[in-house]
């Protein structure tokens, strides 16, 4: 098994060009099967643009539903929450099919229009997490440096432009956050969350999640969850920090890197920030979405 895992991600991802994005074969090889995935009414789909807080919200949901069982303390989060379109071991669709839990927690980075239709037919619950563009970009850049599943990021100065042009694995951040935001207006089983809100007040966001999901948990339980999912706790926990994942080189950058709102200030020059803001105004001018780049 370990040998197979190593072989599965020994080489960098082959770049695949889809009309809507640049991808790698890791996320497209199983496309038909993913599109035909059979969702269930009690499934919970955690949808995000990459690096927006997927693992954080996954762990919150995992603890809210299942607590600290043996499975939680021994199985890495990427084996407990199925990454649907991924073909990196574990194969996401097969893992999702065989998850023993109810609800099944399933993660996707797909733009809203590519979510398998059975999620809508079954009226499954969806949690979308969004993060401000600048911090999301910085986090993605460092991730691209350290994982073999993504194309090399190149220089930061050119990466910013590629991000603004939407030439990223999983496509344009702007289209992603807006597409899901639009869907939220008509789909009542979609809860749209922000990384910045979670960072500001994790307890409040857990309360909101519980209300949305119809979960009654005691204040004590909710406090335990909020404390368990703090950045430092997740960073030192080998089941949540991705240290056992085959495709990542933590010597370059750890998965649990900084976990902050506003780290973009350590990366953008004043000119880069202005350019990004001007471009942002144009791309987001028709959107009612509001992001915070500091708290
Ligand atoms: S992935 O690969 O798309 O699933 O990555 P994802 O989990 O969406 O995003 C990783 C970033 O989220 C940060 N993170 C957290 N921040 C604060 N608190 C907690 N508990 C937490 N857990 C994960 C993680 O550090 C990455 O952000 P950066 O800015 O790179 O540190």
Number of helices: 16
Q: End-to-end span in angstroms? A: 44 Å
Kindly report the name of the CATH homologous superfamily: P-loop containing nucleotide triphosphate hydrolases
What small molecules accompany the polymer chains?
3'-phosphate-adenosine-5'-phosphate sulfate
| Biggest sheet features | 5 strands, parallel
SSE topology string: HEEHHEHHHEHEHEHHHEHHHHH
The CATH architecture can be given as: 3-Layer(aba) Sandwich
Radius of gyration: 18 Å
CATH topology: Rossmann fold
Mean pLDDT: 92
How would you write the strand order of the largest sheet?
4-5-3-6-7
- Beta fraction of the residues? 5-15%
> Oligomer, anyone?
single chain
List keywords for this structure.
disordered N terminus, alpha/beta, 295 residues, 5-stranded parallel sheet, Rossmann fold, 16 helices
SSE inventory with pairings:
Layout: H1 2-8, E1 15-18, E2 21-24, H2 25-28, H3 31-35, E3 44-48, H4 54-66, H5 70-74, H6 77-80, E4 82-83, H7 92-98, E5 105-108, H8 118-121, E6 125-130, H9 133-146, H10 156-165, H11 173-186, E7 190-194, H12 195-200, H13 202-213, H14 219-228, H15 231-236, H16 270-284
Parallel strand pairs: 3-5, 3-6, 4-5, 6-7
Antiparallel strand pairs: 1-2
The structure holds 3'-phosphate-adenosine-5'-phosphate sulfate (PPS).
Gist?
With 295 residues, the chain is of the alpha/beta class.
């Amino acid at each position: 098994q370990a040998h197979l895992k190593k072989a599965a991600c020994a080489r960098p991802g082959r770049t695949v060009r889809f009309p809507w994005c640049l991808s790698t074969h890791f996320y497209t090889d199983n496309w038909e099967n993913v599109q035909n995935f059979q969702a269930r009414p009690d499934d919970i789909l955690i949808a995000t643009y990459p690096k927006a807080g997927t693992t954080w919200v996954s762990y919150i949901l995992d603890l809210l539903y299942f607590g600290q069982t043996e499975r939680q303390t021994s199985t890495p989060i990427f084996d407990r929450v199925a990454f649907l379109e991924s073909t990196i071991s574990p194969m996401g669709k097969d893992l999702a099919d065989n998850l023993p839990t109810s609800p099944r927690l399933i993660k996707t980075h797909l733009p809203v229009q590519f979510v398998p239709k059975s999620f809508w037919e079954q009226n499954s619950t969806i949690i979308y997490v969004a993060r401000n563009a600048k911090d999301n970009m910085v986090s993605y850049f460092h991730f691209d440096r350290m994982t073999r599943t993504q194309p090399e990021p190149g220089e930061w100065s050119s990466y910013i432009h590629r991000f603004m042009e939407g030439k990223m694995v999983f496509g344009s951040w702007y289209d992603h956050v807006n597409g899901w935001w639009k869907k939220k207006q008509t789909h009542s089983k979609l809860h749209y969350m922000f990384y910045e809100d979670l960072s500001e007040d994790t307890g409040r966001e857990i309360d909101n999640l519980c209300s949305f999901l119809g979960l009654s948990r005691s204040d004590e339980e909710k406090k335990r969850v909020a404390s368990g999912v703090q950045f430092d706790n997740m960073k030192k926990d080998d089941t949540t920090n991705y240290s056992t994942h085959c495709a990542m080189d933590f010597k370059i950058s750890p998965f649990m890197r900084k976990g902050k709102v506003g780290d973009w200030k350590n990366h953008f020059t004043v000119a880069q920030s202005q350019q990004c803001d001007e471009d942002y105004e144009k791309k987001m001018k028709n959107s009612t979405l509001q992001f915070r780049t500091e708290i």
